[in-house]
Amino acid sequence: MTTSQSTKTPSATAPPPKRKSKLGPMARREARLALWMLAPTFLIVMSVVLFPLLANFWISVKPVKLSDLRPPTPVVSERVRGDMDVAGQEFRIQYRMRNSSRKGDITDVVLIDTLPPGITIITDDPACTVNGSDVRCTLDQLEAGERTRLELTAIADESFAANPVSPRDSEPTVTGNAENILTNSEFTLDNFARIFDSREFWSVLWVTLAYTVFGTLGALVLGLFAAQMLNKPFAGRSILRGLFLFPYVAPVIAVAFTWVILLDPFNGTFNAILQRMNLADEGVNFFGQRALPIDIFGMTIEFPLALATVIAFEAWRYFPLSFLFILARMQSISSDMYEAAEVDGATPLQQFWHISLPQLLGILSTLFLLRFIWTFNKFDDIFLLTGGAAGTRTLTVDVYEQGFALSNLGAGAAVAVAIFVLLLIFAVFYFKFVHREDS
Amino acid sequence: MRIGTGLLLGLLSGLLWGAIAVAITGISLTLITGLAATPIMSAGALGGAVNAAIILMRAPKDRTPGLYMVAFAAVIVAMMLVSFGAPFSLAFSQNSLTQAFGVGVIALSVTFANRAVLNDIHSGMLKRYSIDLVIVRVLKGFGFVFFSVIVILPFYVMVMTSLKNQQELFLNPLDLSINLTQGAASLFDSYVELFTEFNFGRFLLISTIVSVSTVIITLAFSIPGAYAVARLNFPGQTVLSSSVLLIYLVPMIVLVIPLYAVFSQLGLRNTVVGLLIVYPATTVPVALYMLQGYFRGLPAELEEAGLMDGLSRFGVIVKITLPLALPALASVSLYVFMIAWNEFLFAFMFLDDPDIFTLSRGVVSLNSSEVPRQHLMAGAVIATVPILVIFLWFERFLVQGLTAGSVKG
Question: Which residue did the predictor score with more confidence, A132 or A395?
Answer without folding.
Answer: A395
